[in-house]
Amino acid sequence: MRRKGDFTLIEAQERIENRYSVVKCIAHGHGSDVYSGKDEILNRPVALKFVREASHDAYQSSLGAAARIAHPAFIGNFDAVEYNGQLVVVQEFIESPTFAEFVQNDLSFHEIITMGRSLSLAIAHAHRHGVIHGDITPSSLFRGQWNRSTLRINNVQLPPDPEYFTAVSHLLADSEQPQNNMIRSATEDIRAIGAILWLMLGKMPTLPDSLQGYPHDWELLRREVPIPLRNVIERVLLQQHPQKILSAEELIHELGVVQKILDEKRPIPIIPPWDKPAASSIQTLENPSEKIAKQAISRPISTPLRLKNSHPAPIALVGAVTIDAVDVESETISDPNHNDVQLDAGDLAEISVLPPAKAERQPFDIILWIAIAIGLFLFWLIVGYAIPGIGGH
Fold this sequence. Notes:
alpha+beta, Phosphorylase Kinase, domain 1, Transferase(Phosphotransferase), domain 1, 4 domains, 6-stranded antiparallel β-sheet, 3-stranded mixed β-sheet, 9 helices
């Protein structure tokens, strides 16, 4: 082992406690250097954190708190050993994308809210056990490997990153009053989650240097944010907000409310997916009877009059319009331009349609007429033989 500046350089294949073998360096944190390794006894990959001398006491005191957290969102600590006078924390090895990797994807609002709730649930669990994380930063977060809508959190009670949390204090700042973000508290954990949500909305791996405070920082996202979601983030970040969110449980609830609001605004498909046109829009009219009557006259049979919540199998054919199972409250008609029109049930009574086309002869009708012809022929023969002169005898 040798040092280069603040970094700990470990040679590959070096063994720790005659059990853990070093593979390669994968990251340099503000308090430790992280290497991938292998547990030779249990034959599994591990992460080896070589803690720097300045952070030794903070890491050592946090190990007991980390052991009290039994939540799947937190990365597990397996062991803590001394190696050449340096503390080495053995952790679960994470192969999932880091925050800097997955945040640059086009995350939907639904995904961002779900991740925010999963992070808040984990922090709420820690707070209930009397543990303050204190270092929720982009470098401490990973995307869930099995559930991609969740976040994994690295360790607990680590020394806060001064540079990052100084930038957080300027995000949407609504007051020039100096803030001491180096003091661990439940409120600062919640504020850190708000900054993570803001970063995900802007597809940013870290906070920019061009923060100007509220409301100018919203312009940096270059993205329209739904008002309910924006309000929740402001209630987390703004120090002077009258409805400021102060607990993880409250943040979980408010994000759930936002998710429900956004879900309700999604267009509900009226036509079943297997029958829905590739592109459609819904237009509501107060009195569409006249327009529908004109459409019904010129509508080809291939374009159905489809009723809301109906089954795709038609039950009647009237003129040039196919009618499905009736919903007593409302129906929908699809026009050739793929514009769905909603109307009330009473409007159908006012619609005049073309008279039904002449039905084709069915096999039963043909057989009936043949039987009648044969019957008349036999009747003529019988009468002709019974009454001389009629049959020409």
